[in-house]
Design brief:
2 copies of one chain form a homodimer. Chain A is of the alpha/beta class and 329 residues long. The first copy, chain A, is built from 11 helices and 16 strands. A 6-stranded parallel β-sheet of chain A has the order 3-2-4-6-7-15, sandwiched between helices. Chain A has a 6-stranded mixed β-sheet with strand order 9-8-12-13-14-16, sandwiched between helices. In chain A, strands 10-11 form a two-stranded antiparallel sheet. In chain A, helix 5 crosses helix 11. The longest helix of chain A is centred in the first third of the chain and has 16 residues. At the A-B interface, strand 1, helix 4, helix 5, strand 3 and helix 6 of A face strand 1, helix 4, helix 5, strand 3 and helix 6 of B.
Chain lengths: 329, 329
């Protein structure tokens, strides 16, 4: 590793180029100057390896090319991939990402918003668990999965359509009685619509269904109890299961194997998210895939264009089904 | 969601508190003033919801409480968990994280370092694939897994010890002939020592071993060919395999199952990293676990304390073995 000497200033550039300080400033800020001046300044910048002080620039232009991204954590492969996609979309637009991991804590989320304001970020993209989050009206905010109101754009997968798709796929694959399982936050959010879509499809197809819905923090054994209650003479009461996430589907798959239930022969299982082992290897289960690249692109476009009154309040992006071995096809 | 009106200035705080601007400045910067003045300023700050402009502060104090973290991506669960741990360690010290994902591209890594300098970060923690990375000598840098030289602290797992541990564990579990498989960068880096530790333990125990080592970018089928070459009359030539990562071990496990080789009955398999499905559920295989929390803590302490001449050039943190079902114990 080689090293660069301590940072040169704009004055050093002016001296090296033999021009006035104001000329250097113009060139750096893209204001036209005579061609020969521009060339001399650019050569001096290159020679001295001059770097713009973005703090000084941030004070002047009121723009920092920095966007704060707030998610619960990076441990969940869904959040990790989402942040990876947002980072790519920001980088492609020459913006930087300040990352906040909130650990689902509403107080910490509010503190991070204050930090982001201090940092003078150009906007915030958040996947928040704080329905009362307070954000300055001057700071562009785009929300993922949580609808805050008409003035804050919310970007999500088509969760309702995905829930319908799961029920329809199970029935198409021969299932005659379905179950839906969910563990999650009690707060209203877009992913809750998975259940509503699932129920609406079951009712439209006139297929019987059972629900098992528990709050975050409930021990996983609640699902094992539910499975056992519906297990008679080596058979489950249902032959198709839709789980609200791949994480839950993966756990249910483990329980079914322990009970001696064959998947997909006896019971077919669909999750939601579309995450893969090691990021890009196998799916953990058959699943409804969220379009994370498109969600990220949409969020970044919205946060950077904010101020346009025409911004929609909710954008739902299309999901698709992928067979991951826990369904017949 | 409620909203806050546009940002008040330090002047507004002085007016509200009925004190001079200089008094407000002192209180905000922690310089002692009379108790009654301090209380009045703090009340005005709270009432007006005043936020320090960190860009103005950054210009003055030459400190931004921001650390840049550079990793190839967040798709790999190993990198995602590492970044999650670093973020936690920075937050605990009231520092922010600027995240750069480099996609293994040395040019992009160099560009990010320039960006980080412009952003006036307090330091960089990087997991770099650019052995020629140029960084200003004024900018504290801590490297993970790549040794740049005596003046740049490098933090890594005890990769050599982990390689030894894998070989010893396989032999302890009854294996009599071992194989080592690796796909990775040709660049010298700390994880390469896994192989050296493995070989040294095999030689010390006088156990025969085979190596299969290919460069990044080689198709996975190279490993299937290797397995087939060593497969005679339904049996492999070796009964213990150490893979350089859990990712590779997971892929090898799939190949062995397809070949009808039973794991762990016929062959035992150990990976390296200790990543878990969905972040905190099952291990993918038996593995040598990297101490990511400790690596993160160490990096953050080093980057924030940089300048102390006593900083070591290499810190290797202890790994441990965990059985994940692909070994007998």
């Amino acid at each position: 590793m080689s090293e660069i000497n301590s940072a040169p200033t704009m004055k050093d550039v002016a001296r090296e180029a033999g021009v006035a300080l104001g000329t250097v400033s113009k060139v750096i800020n893209g204001i036209p100057v005579g061609e020969s001046y521009r060339v001399r300044v650019e050569e001096a910048v290159a020679k001295l390896n001059y770097r713009v002080n973005s703090y000084a620039k941030g004070l002047k232009t009121n723009k920092t090319f920095t966007v704060a991204v707030m998610v619960p954590n990076l441990i969940s492969p869904f959040f990790a991939k989402l942040v990876n996609c947002i980072n790519k979309a920001l980088t492609a637009r020459r913006h930087r990402m300040l990352l906040y991991a909130t650990d689902y804590d509403p107080t910490q989320e509010q503190e991070y918003v204050i930090l982001a304001e201090q940092q003078k970020v150009d906007g915030i993209i958040c996947l928040s668990y704080n329905p009362d989050l307070k954000v300055s009206e001057n700071l562009p905010l785009v929300s993922i999965d949580r609808y805050f109101g008409a003035h804050i754009p919310c970007v999500a997968s088509d969760n309702y359509g995905g829930g319908r798709m799961a029920a329809e796929k199970l029935v198409e694959n021969g299932c005659r009685s379905l179950a839906f399982m969910r563990i999650g936050s009690r707060l209203t959010n877009e992913p809750n619509k998975r259940k509503e879509g699932f129920i609406s499809a079951c009712e439209a197809m006139d297929v019987p269904y059972t629900l098992k819905i528990v709050d975050d923090g409930t021990p996983y054994s609640a699902f094992e109890d539910f499975l056992n209650e519906h297990f008679h003479e080596g058979k489950l009461d249902f032959d198709g299961i839709f789980c609200v996430t791949d994480t839950l589907a993966y756990q249910i798959l483990g329980s079914l194997r322990k009970m001696g239930v064959r998947v997909p022969e006896d019971v077919q299982l669909i999750g939601f998210d579309g995450v893969r082992s090691f990021g890009d290897l196998d799916l953990f289960c058959s699943t409804i895939v969220q379009p994370l690249d498109e969600i990220a692109e949409t969020c970044v476009n919205l946060v950077l264009e904010k101020g346009q009154t025409s911004a929609p309040s909710l954008i739902c992006l299309p999901v698709h089904y992928a067979c991951g071995g826990t369904t017949k096809e």
